[in-house]
Design goal:
single chain, about 90 residues, alpha+beta, Double Stranded RNA Binding Domain, 3-stranded antiparallel sheet, 2 helices
């Protein structure tokens, strides 16, 4: 279970492709055969915030993490990124 949660969290951060320039976080949990990941991003000045939750079969942990990253960007986090990759 722990390995699946870590896989989802790492895939989330890798999909964003960012360093430490903005606050982001992810927390994944596994219950039975399901994995749930909660993610957030905030603007550097603390004025903006976006969060999402994604879930699915724990066997799809990395895909769930990547989808959570895409959903977070679509939920408004893209405006917090200053790198050309994420504009």
């Amino acid at each position: 279970e722990t390995a699946d949660a870590i896989a989802a969290e790492r895939a989330f951060q890798a999909a964003l492709g960012i360093g430490c320039e903005i606050p982001v976080g992810a927390h994944a949990t596994v219950e039975g055969g399901r994995l749930r990941i909660r993610c957030f991003a905030a603007s550097a000045d603390g004025q903006g915030w976006a969060e999402v939750e994604q879930s699915g079969p724990r066997t799809d942990a990395a895909a769930i993490g990547r989808q959570a990253a895409r959903n977070l960007l679509e939920a408004g986090a893209a405006r917090f990124f200053t790198t050309p990759t994420h504009r």
